[in-house]
Amino acid sequence: xxxxxxxxxxxxxxxxxxxxxxxxxxxxxxxxxxxxxxxxxxxxxxxxxxxxxxxxxxxxxxxxxxxxxxxxxxxxxxxxxxxxxxxxxxxxxxxxxxxxxxxxxxxxxxxxxxxxxxxxxxxxxxxxxxxxxxxxxxxxxxxxxxxxxxxxxxxxxxxxxxxxxxxxxxxxxxxxxxxxxxxxxxxxxxxxxxxxxxxxxxxxxxxxxxxxxxxxxxxxxxxxxxxxxxxxxxxxxxxxxxxxxxxxxxxxxxxxxxxxxxxxxxxxxxxxxxxxxxx
Amino acid sequence: xxxxxxxxxxxxxxxxxxxxxxxxxxxxxxxxxxxxxxxxxxxxxxxxxxxxxxxxxxxxxxxxxxxxxxxxxxxxxxxxxxxxxxxxxxxxxxxxxxxxxxxxxxxxxxxxxxxxxxxxxxxxxxxxxxxxxxxxxxxxxxxxxxxxxxxxxxxxxxxxxxxxxxxxxxxxxxxxxxxxxxxxxxxxxxxxxxxxxxxxxxxxxxxxxxxxxxxxxxxxxxxxxxxxxxxxxxxxxxxxxxxxxxxxxxxxxxxxxxxxxxxxxxxxxxxxxxxxxxx
Lengths: 279, 279
Known about the structure:
The structure is a homodimer.
Chain A lengths: L1 E2 L2 E2 L2 E3 L3 H5 L2 E9 L2 E2 L2 H15 L6 H13 L6 E9 L16 E8 L6 H4 L2 E5 L19 H7 L9 E5 L5 E4 L3 E6 L2 E5 L9 H14 L3 E4 L3 H5 L3 E6 L3 E8 L2 E2 L4 H15 L3 E2 L1
Parallel strand pairs in A: 8-9, 8-15, 12-13
Antiparallel strand pairs in A: 1-2, 1-7, 4-5, 4-6, 5-17, 6-7, 9-10, 11-12, 11-14, 14-15, 15-16
Helix pairs in contact in A: 6-8
């Protein structure tokens, strides 16, 4: 781990990160020495800093530090870079320091070992009892207040449930605990509106703004309920690490068609193979 | 600071506290060598652990550590003890470790210097633009996901606004950014219902269950809107550190009567003078 560019494995007890979750994070796939979707992660981070009132972070500085973090280790073909940005050290109390000095933390994690059949045959998902609270002030951001996801993840310990879907208090389906959701109906994509809660995933953005566009597939962002899922042609989940996982079943509903999901998966793989920022 | 009983000023970068705000805290007044409302703080902590699925913490162990933390310092007549309890060190991802080993952190802070007139003449409050999201899974707990309070506190930098009131998305008044709210109308107390959002403050509980009861004042917990505040006879805010602050004005509404608020303040002072756990 690097903290403000210095190797360390501990954090100051006065960092506002700890006391309030006052910051943001990015989880970035590192494949064959390339930081995947780097520009998109840096754009989301900049937008989040803007919304939280944090000073902007120089992406080149973060890139230099990422390079140092990864050059010190064995070069695994795949790894994860987690970047955390916080409002820095402050006194007791919610009031922000007048001139916050941002703390930036870069962590290196090994690549997680998911079974191949999650991509090949798809996964089984269930609905979580834990709901997402709504708040437009925080919606969309990848901030560090993640107790709702922690509580939801505690509900599913059985290995046969690979992801839990979270609803808002009105019963709209918003996202998975660590993934965004897409529905395919009549050869078009539908993904939940995230203006009131949820995380605007970088992979979600990539699918909407690049992959679907290239394939000429229309994307609708709107309210989605469980009925929409039960009557969908196909479903899939995505994030920056897994890419796309088809959903083979949601509760008692079984999906037998993966046609458009496969097409999107193939296009995504091709796109990513040619891109990424060198470490 | 003590971490699991060991003096330190840094935290492991892998603690779930940092990554998700996965834990709880208590802010306790220490006056003349006594931990004020200790049993009530320990009860709220135990309830929170239960709801988050954290192993229970032995209050005697926390008391022993508090004694050590305060004996090492000059004995200021007043200080603050902050206790933080987290789900401990875990891997990447929201899933909880199967057998979480709780991290307990005790921090000592100097007593904050509020001017006397906050108690004597009352404070001015305004409504924050930042709303509180609703979620019964987290409502009431003093957990570590506090970005809403951070964002709300950023709105009021002027010294003439001493506290901001936070509404939920439906427009109900819930609480201050760091205080609970009471309304006095027709010699009865009204305090916002906190079943959907807000923090069930220890001082709020003390006023409801002890102080008001002793004075024979009825307390109603229910939905409160801004009109209820504008037509109130008196208003006051409370927390474990400040005790009770009368409100002299809310927006354009000025309160000229502090009769029952003073009575509650005097009774609270008398009660606390005789209580507390020795350090």
